[in-house]
Amino acid sequence: MYKTSLLATGGFNEKCGILGVGTKQFTLSLEEFKDALYLLNYMEIERTETEIKKFELKHNIKKNTFQKLLDSNLILESSLVKPKKVKSIILCKILYNVLPVSH
Fold this sequence. Notes:
- By secondary structure, the protein is of the alpha+beta class.
- The protein is 40% helix and 19% strand.
- It is built from 4 helices and 5 strands.
- It has helices spanning 30-42, 49-58, 64-71, 89-98; strands at 2-4, 9-12, 17-21, 24-28, 75-77.
- A 3-stranded antiparallel beta sheet has the order 2-3-4.
- Strand 2 (9-12) and strand 3 form a beta hairpin.
- The protein is globular and about 30 Å long.
């Protein structure tokens, strides 16, 4: 089971998106950034690898996006994410500023 890290944060401008945890940050194209936000938002609750793969297929998210987020500690095995009831307000604010509401 996997879940979005409580420390995941990011931002964007008209050219690129930035995601990271603490001092470890990286840039993404806006398309990759939107895909990553969809996935991070979806994974605010625990998800299995099968659920994640189905979500990626349904939303045409590149296959390497999950692995990139996992390698960067933006997504963690759910046993490492504590406490379970805290929400990432920063990520939610970014998500609603970047993604269309209808999606």
